[in-house]
Amino acid sequence: MYFAKLEGLGNDFLVVSAEEAEGRSFFGLSQQICDRHYGIGADGLLIYSREDPSGGADFRMRIFNADGGEAELSGNGLRCLAAFLFAESLAENSVVRIATLAGLKVLRLTDSSPPEYRFEVDMGEPILQRSQIAFKPSSGPDSLIAFPLPVGGEVHPVTISSMGNPHCSLFVNQFSDVDWEHLGNQIEGHPFFPERTNIEFIRVRNRNEIEVRFWERGVGKTFSSGTGSCAAIVACILNGRTDREVKIQTMGGSLEIEWREDNRLQLRGPARWICSGEYAG
Fold it and tell me: Which domains can be identified in the chain, with CATH numbers?
């Protein structure tokens, strides 16, 4: 089975065509191939297939986390797949349209210096309507901004949103002030989130720059997250902490995101080809 491995700011993915993986359980394949000891190792598996361009998309992407669960969207995964498509000469021009479970996403190649590729991505509009988010608290206020989330005997004010996948964002003064990995693990499976959730821990540096740590559903700690960065910006703006165009410093590098006046989020960042080969599993 031919695969390629790419990373977006340390968030790594394996790319396999649906044709190569035909007849296999994507659930089982993702668990096996993403295992860092017995497989190739990655945060997730991207399965792609060609689409009829007349339907609006050039390709379709399905995302499976390392635990086998299917995710609706990954901003870093989008860039990694797009980089793969350009590197393999499968994308015909500087714009590629990719269908996901969270809708159609459009990426524009802004720089190509193999093995690294940079893209501008239209991530769409954030979902802020409570009825459209998998968040079912047993009690509490109607607002999703600074919602008092009870966790382990403490209450944490969190902001809930969705980028097609659920997000829970909270602010910290210093990352050393909180065991964010432990807290992220607790929040991921919190009963208020029936489909589990992704978590962002945000430290605001100034009105144009933030630093974020990520705990991703089905993966755990990751070096970066595209949808998580978008959710973090949304949380910052809703809470009046930053302007609408912000640089995000992650453990793997920096992204730039703008929440435009038309309500759409524009993300700019890199993806890098690591290797390719044959998977014998």
Answer: 2-124+269-278 (3.10.310.10), 130-262 (3.10.310.10)
